[in-house]
Structure formats: structure tokens, C-alpha cells
Design goal:
3-stranded antiparallel β-sheet; globular; 6 strands; alpha+beta; 146 residues
Length: 146
């Protein structure tokens, strides 16, 4: 039953993303050029600064710890919400080369948004913009925001 709920929810979220026109269901952040002071891999989108995506997949607990303990650039970091990840994808959906030029690999990324099913957390695939659930004991990649 849990698997069926996950599949149906995934289908609904995917259809919602596919039908969403620019700005209809998603607050679209316009990507801005990274200021010269940001090192390679750090980008800005909207009012957020994004840290480079992790090279290795980690559990949700590890992702939370990575962001909470990071002091990179002297910033206070946190995990992005599902909506922030969706906005990042929407801003860069036709500009994935810009992310890759910054060294980003477009994997599934943990959000800080809990799923509607216990033990699952929202993740977003940055290559296709697909919002899905990830088992909190499974592994995905992490990017932190400030």
C-alpha cells in the first residue's frame, strides 16, 4: 500500500510540474550571474546562494548535518526546501549547461521538506525537474542554501 501511495503521489507531482506554466504553480527565480567573489561551484538564484552539489550521495541525516555544520564562505547554510529546489530547476531548466559549467552534476537532491508518508522526504532530480520521495535511510545528493 505504501508503495502504491508513493507511486501515485509521484505521478501527481510529475503531472503538476509538467502542466505548470511559468510562474503558475511555482515561484520562478531568475538566475543571476554569480558575483565574481563566489568560488567555482557556488551560484545565486533569486535571493539564495547555493553551495556546490555533493559529489557523493548521503543519507538525509548526513545531508542535514552537512548543511547545518558548514561554514563555507562564512555563511550560515541550510537544506533547501522542495519549493526552492523546484524554483532552481525552473530557473535553469533550459540552462543546465550553466550549472554544469559550475561543476554541478544534476542528481537527485534532498530537500528539507518532509514527505506526506512517514519516513519519506521530498527530493528533486535536477536533470529532469522531477519531484519524488526519497527514503530517509536511502541516499541522495545535497546542496545547501544561504
Amino acid at each position: 500500500m505504501k508503495k502504491l501511495i508513493v507511486i501515485l503521489t509521484t505521478l501527481l507531482l510529475t503531472l503538476n510540474m509538467a502542466w505548470a506554466g511559468p510562474g503558475e504553480h511555482v515561484n520562478v527565480a531568475v538566475p543571476s550571474a554569480a558575483p565574481a567573489k563566489l568560488p567555482l561551484g557556488y551560484i545565486t538564484s533569486g535571493k539564495l546562494t547555493w553551495a556546490p552539489i555533493s559529489a557523493t550521495a548521503v543519507t538525509l541525516a548526513e545531508a542535514k548535518n552537512i548543511c547545518a555544520s558548514s561554514t563555507a564562505l562564512g555563511y550560515k547554510w541550510r537544506q533547501p526546501t522542495k519549493d526552492e529546489l523546484v524554483a532552481l530547476y525552473a530557473a535553469y531548466r533550459n540552462k543546465s549547461a550553466a550549472l554544469r559549467a559550475q561543476g554541478w552534476t544534476l542528481y537527485d537532491v534532498w530537500s528539507s521538506t518532509p514527505g506526506t508518508v512517514f519516513g519519506l522526504q521530498f527530493i528533486l532530480n535536477l536533470d529532469g525537474g522531477i519531484v519524488n520521495y526519497g527514503d530517509e535511510n536511502g541516499v541522495s545528493h545535497v546542496s545547501c542554501v544561504s
